[in-house]
Amino acid sequence: MTKDLLKGKRGIILGALDTNSIAWKVAERAHEQGASFVLSNAPIALRKGDIFELGKATGSEVISADLTQVDEIEHLYQESVEILGGNIDFLLHSVGMSPNVRKGLGYTNLDYNYMMKTLDVSAISLHKLLQTAYKMDIINDWGSVIALSYIAAQRTYSTYSDMAQAKAMLESIARSFGYHYGKKRNVRINTISQSPTITTAGTGVGGFKSFYAYANCMSPLGNASSDDCADYCIMMFSDLTRKVTMQNLYHDGGYSTMGISETLIQSCFTCQGECFDDIAEKERVMGKKDASSETQDK
Questions:
Q1: Which domains does the chain have, with CATH numbers?
Q2: Could you tell me whether strands 88-93 and 62-64 are parallel, antiparallel, or unpaired per DSSP bridges?
Q3: Choosing a second label site near 263 at 20 to 30 A (CA), which of 86, 114, 130, 227?
Q4: Does an H or E element contain 260, and which?
C-alpha cells in the first residue's frame, strides 16, 4: 500500500476490543499511514484491557464512551479535539451487540426490550454520533465516516436474529445523514458490508462456522480478512475517495453477487436430499439409491 495516505489526518476509532477486531486492525493501519487518533469503546469493553495495549502501540489515548448516551459522545468529541489538537478527519463505527443473540433467543422469540438495546447500540448510536458531530461541527471538510455492516441487512440469515434489522438501519442512517453532512461539510458517510470475519462479535452468532465456510466457498476471491477490511477503510478515509458517499460497499470477495459456485458444488455441497419432503421428488432430483448402496450405508 502507498505510504502516508493519512499523514496529518486526525480521527476516532470506535470498537477495538482485541487483536481479532477489525477496528484494531484499522488502528494499526491508520498508525502506519501517518494518522493520529483516539481509541474508544464502552466502559464494559475497556475492562478487558487489551485496548490500552493498542493505545501504547499506536501512541493513542483511550477514552471510555457509551455511544447510547449523547452526553458521553459530546465528552468524547471534546476530549478528542483537545488531545488531537483540532477537529477530526475520519471516524470508524465498528460497534454492534445483540442481547438476544447473546442469550440465544431465536428470531421468533425475541425479547423486545433486548431488541431496542440492539438497535440503540448497533445502529442508532451512529445517528447519535453523526448528529452530535454535526451540531458541534467536529468533522473537517471532506472528512470520512465508515460504519461496518453485513449482508444480512439485505438477505435473510436465519440465526443472525435482530442484528439484521440493526444493520439495515445502520445503512439507512448512513445514506440519510450522508446527504445532510455532504451538503454542510462535504463529509462522506459510507458503510462497508464485510465478509464473515473471525472476530469476538462475529463468532458469537449461531452457525458462524457455516457462514464463514459457505461464503468462502462461494466467493471467487475468498473471504476478505480483517486485515483486508482495514486496508479498505484506510482507502476510504484517504483523499483518494473524496467523491464516494452514501454507499453500502460490499467487501466480500464477490460473495454478494454470486448465486452458486463450482467450489461450493464440488467441495462443500454435501446435500443428500435431507430437505426434501416429497420422496418422489427427492428420487427424481437426487437419484434413487439401489439396494446395495443402502446396505453399505447401514
A1: 10-259 (3.40.50.720), 268-298 (no CATH)
A2: unpaired
A3: 227
A4: none
Closest by CA position to 188, among listed 225, 240, 136, 224 = 240
22 touches 192 (CB < 8 A): no
3-state helix, strand, coil in the chain (%, to 5): 50, 15, 35
**Using one digit for the tens of pLDDT, what is the confidence trace for 95-112?**
999 999 999 999 999 999
Q: Give the alpha-carbon dihedral of 11, 175, 99, 91, to 10 degrees.
A: 0
Give the cell for residue 47: 475492562
Cβ neighbours of residue 165 closer than 8 Å, sequence gap 6 or more: 115, 118, 119
- Give tens-digit pLDDT for 136-160: 999 999 999 999 999 999 999 898 9
